[in-house]
Automatic annotation (TrEMBL):
Residues 66-294 form the Ionotropic glutamate receptor C-terminal domain. This is ABC transporter substrate-binding protein. Residues 1-25 form the signal peptide. It comes from the Bacteria. Pfam families: SBP_bac_3. Residues 66-295 form the Solute-binding protein family 3/N-terminal domain.
């Protein structure tokens, strides 16, 4: 991963008198259950093709009949593998619905997060839905079509026995996913601020793991004292670990997720139109409710609308 640069903007981390705004992201995976607000068996309304939107699809994609969609399937409830190994989640259902609107099918493929954008620019994948935060940095190399909004939070062991203050993580053992902006932020923002304040830094620039499942396990096992991830992932992990974890501090710095497409691709406008159509006909709302993430709903999809 070229660093999960700004998958989500996070967390004001004050270091003594130093207040630091972080940019973080993560990935979590576990099995859906009714207690998590997820109803994975819920039926999503049937989606029919929109002829006007289908006409915007580039000829090569239309002839292939499918969109190859990359996702890092370790980030429940957004994208993860179910008990049978199938890739499921909010992003997967939305990708399938977008494809149907365009008269296509979605071929969803698992990929490591850091390989996705290079895979898009290298034409390995047609697009990606993998909880990418829309940022100016990303828009320099790819198109981003917004479809969801998420903030970032922190989780600790139940009862917060270590008395973790998410606004001051100096010297704390912090679990993050490899290549994420959480990892970048520990290294580039938190630790420099800790040093400036004369405080100990986060060891190892954060304990980094390839999968969010391993990040969560590091916290559950006590290897680390706090983990950082997108707000829906934090909420889901707390519920799925049966009360072993709890959220600490406030969700901060909400920002939009974006569908990732090749820069200046004709497909970008088609995808934007498909998302807006799904919002209008209620499919979008149904999908978000199915996965218990309706709090992140937006009402307008924007192409390359990042402000930072």
């Amino acid at each position: 991963m070229t660093a999960r640069t700004q998958r989500t903007r996070l967390l004001a981390a004050g270091v003594a008198a130093v207040s630091v705004s972080l940019v973080l992201t993560g990935c979590g995976s576990s099995k859906p259950s009714g207690s998590s607000g997820v109803n994975a068996s819920a039926t999503v309304p049937a989606v029919t093709s929109d002829a006007a939107l289908a006409a915007l699809v580039p000829a090569d994609v239309k002839s292939a009949g499918k969109i190859v969609v990359a996702t890092d399937a370790s980030y429940a409830p957004n994208e993860f593998k179910d008990d049978k190994g199938a890739i499921v989640g909010m992003d997967v259902d939305l990708a399938n619905a977008i494809a149907k609107k365009l008269g296509l099918t979605a071929d969803v493929q698992n990929a490591t997060f850091d390989a996705i954008i290079p895979g898009i620019t290298g034409n390995k994948y047609t697009m990606s839905m993998s909880s990418f935060t829309d940022t100016k940095e990303r828009e320099a190399s790819v198109d981003m079509v917004t479809y969801f909004s998420a903030g970032t939070g922190a989780a600790v062991k139940k009862g917060n026995p270590e008395k973790i203050d998410p606004t001051d993580l100096c010297g704390k053992k912090v679990a993050v996913q490899t290549g994420t902006t959480q990892a970048d932020s520990v290294k580039d923002t938190i630790n420099p601020a800790c040093t400036k304040a004369g405080k100990p830094t986060v060891p190892n620039d954060g304990d980094k793991f390839d999968l969010q499942t391993d990040v969560t396990q590091a916290l559950v096992s006590g290897r680390d004292q706090v983990m950082l991830a997108d707000s829906p992932v934090i909420d889901y992990a707390i519920k799925q670990t049966n009360g072993q974890l709890e959220k600490v501090g406030q969700v901060t710095d909400t920002a939009p997720y974006g569908v990732v497409l090749p820069k200046n691709s004709p497909l970008s406008k088609a995808v934007q139109g498909a998302i807006q159509s799904l919002m209008a006909d209620g499919t979008y709302k149904s999908i978000l409710e199915k996965w218990g993430v309706q709090a992140g709903a937006i009402d307008k999809s924007v192409l390359n609308g990042a402000t930072s």
